[in-house]
Amino acid sequence: MLEIQDLHVKFHSRSHEAVAGVSLTIRDGEILGLVGESGSGKSVTAMSVAGLLPRRQCDYTGKILLNGQDLLHADRAQLRRIQGKEIGVVFQEPMSAMNPLMKIGEQVEEALLIHTTLTRQERRERAIAALTAVELPNPAGICEKYPHELSGGMLQRAMIAAAIVTGPGLLLLDEPTTALDVTVQAQILTLLKRLNQERGISMLFISHNLSVVRKLCGRVAVMQRGVLVEAGETEQVYAHPENEYTRHLIAAIPTRTRKEEQP
Ligand SMILES: Nc1ncnc2c1ncn2[C@@H]1O[C@H](COP(=O)(O)OP(=O)(O)O)[C@@H](O)[C@H]1O
Ligand SMILES: [Mg+2]
């Protein structure tokens, strides 16, 4: 279980807090959606959890407890053990998150190199298993390819493989389908749902797209200017949004999409 308690993050270069007192819980096995307009603090929240805050450029307070251990104030060595092993991270742009000069196989294996004492052959076997789990065809062949040889959707699958290869209990997904076209996006959502159901991986799914969140997330939290303005069961929030800003977000979903998605 991940518990964020009263998280505040203020960058020195800014007058306002990027995150201004966020408390959130991700229960074991659930997918929590985090939505809100650009600049509302979603990514900074995820970076805080992932241990990726540029600590010298900001002040931060609060607690981020992963199974009781505070990640926000963990030292480098502790963070290194957790990041990439217990928490996997997938970002929006697979092309920029990947190293263009490294073959896919090596990149998927990287976390194993850092966190395990597996042999080269064992690492490759795990990588192939992870690439298989994300439904990439010919995983052994994919290992030998470079990022530019894959489509955006395939690359995002490879990124997800890299994030799950160590068997983390929690995945942080920051706009993971935003750069993809609608069909590919739907396939990735189906994949995430399956990984959640079959492996019980908990997920924090960040998106500015409410219809995507509705498909995937049992609960949703809505963020605006660094604070949570609404949180609850996704269907409940959709049916009876209490907050004015949430109502705006729901109203902004194209009507046709909303209709198609009525259960
Ligand atoms: N490294 C940084 N230095 C200064 N300000 C930052 C930095 N990263 C993010 N911010 C600011 O923090 C706020 C929240 O950003 P972010 O979490 O990226 O928003 P979102 O992901 O919801 O679009 C924004 O005002 C953004 O400009
Ligand atoms: Mg963001």
Summed up:
The chain has 263 residues and is an alpha/beta fold. 41% of the residues lie in helices and 23% in strands.
Query: What ligand molecules are bound, each kind once?
Result: adenosine-5'-diphosphate, magnesium ion
Number of helices: 12
Q: What is the CATH C-level name?
A: Alpha Beta
CATH topology: Rossmann fold
Number of structural domains: 1
The CATH architecture category equals: 3-Layer(aba) Sandwich
Nearest-angstrom radius of gyration? 18 Å
Approximately how much beta-strand content do the residues carry? 15-25%
What is the helix content? 40-55%
Strand order of the largest sheet: 6-7-8-3-9-10
Indicate the multimeric state.
single chain
The profile of the biggest β sheet is: 6 strands, mixed
CATH superfamily: P-loop containing nucleotide triphosphate hydrolases
**Overall pLDDT level:** 92
